[in-house]
Structure formats: C-alpha cells, structure tokens
Amino acid sequence: MDHSHDVVIVGGGGAGLRAAIAVAETDPRLSVGVISKVYPMRSHTVSAEGGAAAVIRPDDSLDDHAYDTVSGGDWLCDQDAVEAFVAEAPQELFRLEHWGCPWSREPDGRIAVRPFGGMKKMRTWFAADKTGFHLLHTLFQTTLKYEQVVRYDEWFVTRLIVGDGRVHGVVAIELRSGRIAAIGAKAVILCAGGCGRVYPFTTNANIKTGDAMALALRAGAPLKDMEFVQYHPTGLPFTGILITEAARAEGGRLINKDGYRYLQDYDLGVPEPWPVLRSMELGPRDRLSQAFVHEVEKGRTTDTPYGPVVHLDLRHLGRTTINARLPFVRELCREYERIDPVEDLIPVRPVVHYMMGGVHTDIDGATSLEGLYAAGEVACVSINGANRLGSNSLPELLVFGRRAGQAAAAYASGAGGPGPAVRAQADDERHRLEHDLLFKTDGHEHVSALRQEMQDLMEDSAGIYRTGDSLAKAAGTLRELRERFRDTALGDHSRTFNTQLTAALELSFMLDVAEAIVACALLREESRGAHQRTDFPARDDQRFLAHSLIYRDPGGSYRVEYLPVTITRWPPGERVYGR
Ligand SMILES: Cc1cc2nc3c(=O)[nH]c(=O)nc-3n(C[C@H](O)[C@H](O)[C@H](O)COP(=O)(O)OP(=O)(O)OC[C@H]3O[C@@H](n4cnc5c(N)ncnc54)[C@H](O)[C@@H]3O)c2cc1C
Questions:
Q1: Which whole-number Å values give the CA distances from 14 to 124, 245, 378, 479, in the listed order?
Q2: Is the domain 235-351 a CATH 3.90.700.10 member?
Q3: Which end of the chain, N or C, is more open, meaning fewer C-beta atoms within 10 Å of its C-beta?
Q4: Nearest atom, ligand 1, residue 14 CA
C-alpha cells in the first residue's frame, strides 16, 4: 500500500470538506485523506451563487420547508430523509456562521433571506451572490484546524478497491508526477459531485464528469433515479454560465422575442397572483424550462449561433440594486457576453444544471457496499426526488456530508485493515491505465469527437422532453460509442499533468453515466418532475411512485430495479406551490 488512512474522501468540494470535519470531530484518532482532482477551492461548490435554504423566520416552519421540497420533487423524495434534512439545515448554517461564513444581513442585523423558486416562504440565506465561494472558503479554512486531515490536491481517482464484499481504498494518479498509487482506507466517502458535462450546454464546471457515479457502478453499488436531470432555465447561450435564480428573485423578468412575459401562458403549478413567490419567474425550474421549449415551437424565441434564446430583463431593478444584490451577475454578463444588465437584456436558454440522481445511499450516506459512503451531488439520498428546489443543494451537502462523515468514522473505528486483494487490484489498475491508455499508440478515434457526439446525443434524446423511440436509439448509439472508445489513442504519452489522459478517463466515466441515464429514462414510462416523456405525459403513481436502481454487471450490461418511495406524512398530491 502506497498510502493509507482510516477514511478516504474522494472530493474536496462542500460535501467532501464537511465530511472531513465530521470524521475529525467524531473520532480525533482517525486519519482522513481528502483526494481532489483540482485544488479544493476550485471545486464546483465555489460557483454557487444564489443561496442555501433553511428555516429561520418566525412565519416559516420545518413542515413548510419539507412540504415545498416534497411537492417540488413531485413526490419522489424519501420523506424521512426530507424531515431530517429540514430539521438539521438551520443548525448547519448557524454552525457555518460560527466558523466564519459572512451571511448577508438585514439592516437590523438579522440574517437576510431571499425568495427562491418553488419555496413558498423566504428561507434562502445568501452571501451576496457568492454564497458557494464563502461557504467553501469557510469549510476549507476549518479543515486546516485538523492535523489528521491530509490533502491529496490534484490527485485523480480512477478505481475503487473492493474485496470480500467491502471497500478497501482507491487507486489514484498524482497528476503532477503521473505516479499511480494505491491509497488504502477502511471507509471511503464519495463526494465527487455531479455529471452535467454529459450534456453539451451546462452550468457545470469542466470537472463535473460523474467520475464517482461510474466508480460506484463499476464496484457493484447501484445508482438511483438517474433519469432525473435538472435544466436551469437561465444559462448564457454559448458558455452555459449560470445566471442565478437570485436574479429572478430580485425581480428579473423573462420575455420572449416580442417582449412578452410568456410564462403567463403556462401552468407552472403556482396559483395567481403568486403571493409569496412574488412572480411567475420563480416557478419551478422544470416547468420554466419546459415553457421555453414551447416558446421555441411557437416561433417566439430569438435565434442565435448557439440556438434559440429568450431574454432576462433586469433593467427595471436599476444600477443600485444590481450592484448591491447581483454584482456577480453583472460581472459575468460584462466579461462573457460584453453586455451590461443595467442597460441590456440578457440572452438565456435552459442548460443542464444538476443531477437529482446519484449513488444510492441511506439517510446516513451508506451505500449498499460495506464501507462505501456518498454525500453531496454525487449521492441520491433522496431529498430532491424528481426535481430539486433551488438552494436545497448547499444545505444538503452540509447535512448529509456531516452524516456520512459521522457514519464512516463509526464504521472505520471498528473495521479491520485492508485485505490481500488490494495489492493485486492496484497492480491491475496500473497496468490498465498504462497499457490501455497512456502508452497505447494504435487507435483512430479522438476523445473530443466522441465526447461531442455523446453530448449532442444526450441533449437530443434525453433532454427536457424524451420519447421511448429516441431513448432506445440513444441506448444503441451509446453502446457503439463505448466500442469506439476502445479505439482511442492519446497523442501525449508523458506523465506530467497529462490532460489527455484525464479527459479520456472522464469520457469513459461519462459514457457509463450516460448509459445509466438513458436506461432508466427508457424504462420510466411516465412524466414526473424533470423526466418528461411525450409518449407518457401523465404521472403514474400506480407503477412509478418508486426509485429506479440501476446496477452494472461485470460484463457491462445494465439491470434496473425499483424501490418504493418512503412516504411519512405527505401522501402524493397535485403539484401546486404557494398554498
Ligand atoms: C453554477 C452553479 C450554481 C449553483 N448555485 C447553487 C445555489 O445557489 N444553491 C444551491 O443550493 N446549489 C447551487 N448549485 C448546486 C451546488 O452548488 C452543487 O450541487 C454542490 O456544490 C455540489 O457540491 P459537492 O461537494 O457535492 O461537489 P463539488 O463541489 O462539485 O466537488 C466535487 C469534488 O470532487 C472532486 N473529484 C471529482 N472527480 C474526482 C476524481 N476522479 N478524483 C479525485 N477527485 C475528484 C473534485 O475535484 C471536487 O473537489 C449550483 C451549481 C452550479 C453549477
């Protein structure tokens, strides 16, 4: 074994760092390795803008937050998990305050909250529009207090080591040297984030390639609810950069090419006059993204080289409000679109934003593989069901990062050391990486071309609307892409920061994730939340009030099973906000 720790965490974003602190606090004798393919502060959490939801105002209640989450998720959320989540979210945000997070304040000193899509009460805490930056910084600084937390910055995990029915660590490449090392552990927590890069237009950073979803699948742990992919209605057309929902929370309006607030023509599940949500623009993300598709069909959008767009209008808010509440939005528009939202309309289109599905875990982050845990966007607990409400993800990674850290610490305290399988698996992985990828010279396919084909296929067949035919075709094409992937050869055979190697590994992870999304979407013959089948337009609680669990057999074929949804207090009802 090249390195070893009691607990190894894959991912240095919000979930990973929160889990690391929890392990250190639970049992200070445990050693913790935090492995991240980028420097932790570059993790995607840093780019979260809008805020984090937790009940704080006297007119709000935990039940209200739970109900909004469950109905927003179209009743696919496990309600025991949601109840734990809403109860612990305020404690986590206060804890962050004590660790130094500068939450924005009301003039009288109270924590400020803003409205957010689908939340019927104001409960979204924020730090201007740089919430993720401050949250991640706070967690990062706090981890520095613990000597037992050892960081592996810019190390890329390629495989989980599994033997005797449990996990024993990971194999990772140190990107600076190209050294391939085994890092042993009694427990491993996957905190490696989402997989938006499976699609061509996404708010997600380049590094969000679903690596740990594929690692879990390959190790025999199932993924849950992979067909539920969230589109955010307001991304910049070319880059996919997010214009935060906070812009609409502050009063921004969506207009079509005729200058018309087109959302008034659609059923957003929000009764007029949107008393608490303030405006139709704060309807749920899935419904807003679907309305965009209908505007395209009606010819009421504006064509650009990057596809059709509508516009977000902030001009009436004025310079002072935009500077005070949305400074980052203004900066992004100026830098990336050469426009100023104080004077100009912002072109926007729906872009992939968040993965509701992920590694199947219980309420403490435990997967079905002994010793393996998961938390954050990579995991599916599930509190997000068929559609996540904006600002629930940051508190989710705090609540379940902590829970997974505590559970992994308890497990590691009693677990034995790594078994004999470890060395052999590490050698096998080293051989695979060097022989099949790094030093391979015969191959005709290019990673970038295959990636583009996969992304376009996913947008066309597993996007905002899907049909059985297009999904079945996509499943076949993905199998072909997997075959063609075997025929790739890299142009760069050096070991130091070989980005071609990591891009190839990421593509192979993404192909697994794409196959899982398509397989689950094909079998779910209903429409619910972010999964809209034009051939099955209604929700079907008889057959599908259930989570899909997808397994990958060693031969590479997929199997889907269903698991009942946990209902505690809110029986399935019509999806209406603002009651
Ligand atoms: C632009 C944007 C804005 C958002 N705004 C909000 C918001 O306002 N409110 C809200 O609640 N949510 C928001 N979200 C969602 C939320 O930010 C994310 O879901 C959440 O931050 C994910 O955190 P994480 O810790 O799970 O993963 P990340 O922060 O994505 O961290 C993943 C970590 O895993 C590591 N990793 C991945 N693969 C490997 C590998 N193979 N080897 C080693 N390390 C690996 C990475 O280096 C990284 O450290 C936003 C998302 C985006 C994209």
A1: 17, 20, 12, 34
A2: yes
A3: C
A4: 25
Is the pLDDT at 576 greater than 70? The verdict is no
* pTM of the complete model: 0.96
CA–centroid distance, 297 to ligand 1, in Å, is: 33
Q: Say which amino acid occupies 514.
A: A
| DSSP H helical ranges for 219-299 | 246-249, 285-297
Closest C-alpha to ligand 1, atom 10: 391
- Is 319 assigned a catalytic role? no
At which residue do the structure tokens 């401050």 appear? 134
- Alpha-carbon dihedral of residues 570, 400, 286, 198, nearest 10 degrees? -140
Residue having the nearest C-alpha atom to atom 3 of ligand 1:
48
- Catalytic residue status for 533: no
Question: Does 207 contact ligand 1 (Cβ within 6 A)?
Answer: yes
Largest CA distance in the chain: 68
- The yes-or-no answer to whether 235-351 and 422-555 have a common fold is no
Atom 50 of ligand 1, nearest CA residue: 48
Pairing of strands 3-10, 179-190: parallel
* Number of the ligand 1 atom closest to the C-alpha atom of 393: 11
Q: Is 234 in the pocket of ligand 1 (CB under 6 A)?
A: no
Stated length of the chain:
579
How many CA atoms within 13 Å lie on the side-chain side of 541? 9
Extract the runs of DSSP E, i.e. beta strands, from 316-442: 346-355, 358-360, 372-374, 379-380
Domain boundaries, the chain: 235-351, 422-555
Cβ neighbours around 78 below 10 Å, total = 26
Q: What is the CA radius of gyration of the chain?
A: 23
Distances (CA, A) of 442 to 148, 189, 490, 502: 45, 37, 9, 18
Return the ligand 1 atom nearest residue 375 CA.
Answer: 26
Q: Which atom of ligand 1 is nearest to the CA of 38?
A: 47
Class of domain 422-555 (CATH, top level): mainly alpha
Nearest CA to ligand 1 atom 12: 393
Our answer on whether the CB atom of 376 is closer than 6 Å to any ligand 1 atom is: yes
* pLDDT single digits (tens) 202-235: 999 999 999 999 999 999 999 999 999 999 999 9
Does 243 sit in the ligand 1 pocket, CB within 6 Å? no
What does the pLDDT look like over 243-283, one tens digit per residue? 988 899 889 999 999 999 999 999 877 655 444 456 788 88
Write out the DSSP string of 187-219.
EEEE-----GGGSSSBSS-TT-S-HHHHHHHHT
User: Residue whose CA is closest, atom 21 of ligand 1?
Assistant: 45
Question: Of the listed 18, 123, 232, 466, which one is catalytic?
Answer: 232
Q: Which of 5, 42, 248, 325 is catalytic?
A: 248
